[in-house]
Amino acid sequence: MGHYLVVGTGIAGAGAARALAARGHEVIVYDRVESDGLAALAPLVTDTVSGEDPPREALARVDEVVVSPGIPPHHPLVLAAQDAGLEVYSEPELAWRLRPADAAPWLAITGTNGKTTAVTMLASILTAAGLKTAALGNIGTPLVDAVTADYDVLAVELSSQQLHWSKQLSPRVGALLNLADDHLSWHGDFDAYSHAKTAIWRGDVHIGNADDPRVSALLKDAPGDTPITFTLGEPSPGQFGVRDGKLVDNTGTAPVALCDVAAIRPTGIHNVANALAATAVARAFGVPAEAVAAGFASYVPEPHRNVEIATVGGVRYVDDSKGTNPHATAAAIEAYDPIVWIAGGQLKGVDVETLVERAAPRLRGAVLLGVDRAILAGLLAKHAPDVPVVTIDRTDPEAMTDAVTAAAAMARPGDTVLLSPAGASYDMFTGYPDRGRRFAAAVAELDDGPGPVS
């Protein structure tokens, strides 16, 4: 019987606590404050603790600590646990350790952006191949809830934080989509962030984005055999890529055309890259070629990720509320022209000047809201002085209605109003889904009413 401290009562923490308690281990659950989550777990676990940070008495009673993704390496609790010689790791790592000998293999994907899209694409392809699977992990479903279920294979999304706190986790196939500055305050610097991502390659097959210089540099030091790469260009031997409007597998004795690029949803060149990654992972696992096209034909895009929600008065409205950093927003902007851009939120200290400079030629106008709106306004004045900019100063969630109204007034038939904020949402909304839903609701209230999505 083990002795565990589980930190946090969110999805990952609650899942870890339930899984350990169900296996007869002694489990102490810690949360900084008394919470409904802590109360709900109390009947299931050995003890619950709140308040003291770090909880030194609880640490003295355990051998291992399972932390939620939000807990950074420099957190006092982590430092205290490490000083006490305790092992610290994440919920996915726990799931890996708890899995039975005959557990379903893991096919895992990480990256700064596109993880959820690529993993759900992968799950759709695997399902089309007749395999029982699910998209799990950072997407919102704890892996500890799935490792003993009757799956053939798991499609796993892993974040840099989850990978940082992993030690043994070794997916059968691991893919790295892209790398850009993100979560630097959590990791400390970009080198630590990128190093965490490389844990995705502990397993048998390593896949990476040949078009991303940072990923390519890391692939040179990846363990094992020659990695598989994907590119938006024509694929060289050993690559997946695009030729004559089709996704092509060029890793075998002859190139194999798999799927029309036009069939990939959501739109955007970045989603073609996501599709290539999902395809490469599936094919590396042995999925037949015909399942790739079938998987994309049945794929339903995740909400708030570059999704066209309506056409009103000849203007297309696109919800990319999940665009919470410059890298993601840059990819969305490149999919449309001209654009009325709704942006702003919590920029998290990340430099957005390059994003604004790249966006400027495509802009019909911009509407800015959120705590860091002034930063974007200043950069637009510098790089797009002729582009009209409306700044929404109110900071309640209903400000989205004002933003959509202002954007609609600037847009012309044929334009796209794009919500892709380049920042986090918690300054005004409960999360990016709330922000996206309020955008869609405001669009639905426009005078013409929503037209069909083209």
Automatic annotation (TrEMBL):
Alphabetized UniProt keyword annotations: ATP-binding, Cell cycle, Cell division, Cell shape, Cell wall biogenesis/degradation, Cytoplasm, Ligase, Nucleotide-binding, Peptidoglycan synthesis
Domain Mur ligase central: 109-282
Gene3D superfamilies: Mur ligase, C-terminal domain, Mur-like, catalytic domain, NAD(P)-binding Rossmann-like Domain
Main location: cytoplasm
Keyword Plastid part of the UniProt annotation: no
UniProt binding sites for ATP: 111-117
GO biological process, one term: cell wall organization
PROSITE patterns: FOLYLPOLYGLU_SYNT_1
Catalytic activity: UDP-N-acetyl-alpha-D-muramoyl-L-alanine + D-glutamate + ATP = UDP-N-acetyl-alpha-D-muramoyl-L-alanyl-D-glutamate + ADP + phosphate + H(+)
Gene Ontology cellular component terms for the protein in this record: cytoplasm
Pathway(s) the chain acts in: Cell wall biogenesis; peptidoglycan biosynthesis
Residue span(s) of domain Mur ligase C-terminal: 309-423
Entry-linked InterPro entries: Folylpolyglutamate_synth_CS (IPR018109), Mur-like_cat_sf (IPR036565), Mur_ligase_C (IPR004101), Mur_ligase_C_dom_sf (IPR036615), Mur_ligase_cen (IPR013221), MurD (IPR005762)
Record GO terms (molecular function): ATP binding; tetrahydrofolylpolyglutamate synthase activity; UDP-N-acetylmuramoylalanine-D-glutamate ligase activity
Subcellular location: Cytoplasm
EC number: 6.3.2.9
UniProt KW Glycoprotein keyword: no
Function, in words: Cell wall formation. Catalyzes the addition of glutamate to the nucleotide precursor UDP-N-acetylmuramoyl-L-alanine (UMA).
PANTHER family for the chain: UDP-N-ACETYLMURAMOYLALANINE--D-GLUTAMATE LIGASE (PTHR43692)
Record-stated family: Belongs to the MurCDEF family.
Protein name per the record: UDP-N-acetylmuramoylalanine--D-glutamate ligase
